[in-house]
Amino acid sequence: MDLNTVLTITSARHRDDLAHLGTQVAPLAGGSDLFADPQTHLTGLVDLQTLGWPALTLTTDAGGPVTASDTTPGLTIAATCTIAELSRLEAAPGWTAHPLLHQCCTALYGSFKIWNVATVGGNLCASLPAGPMTSLAAALDAEVLIWRRDGSDERMPAAAFVTGNTTNVLGTGDVLRSIHVPASSLAARTAYRKIALSPLGRSGAVLIGRLDLDSGFVLTVTAGTVRPVQLRHDSLPDAATLARDIAAIDCWFTDAHGAADWRRAVSGVLAEEIRAELDNAEPGDAEPGDAEPAQGDRS
Question: What is the pTM (predicted TM-score) of this model?
Answer without folding.
Answer: 0.89
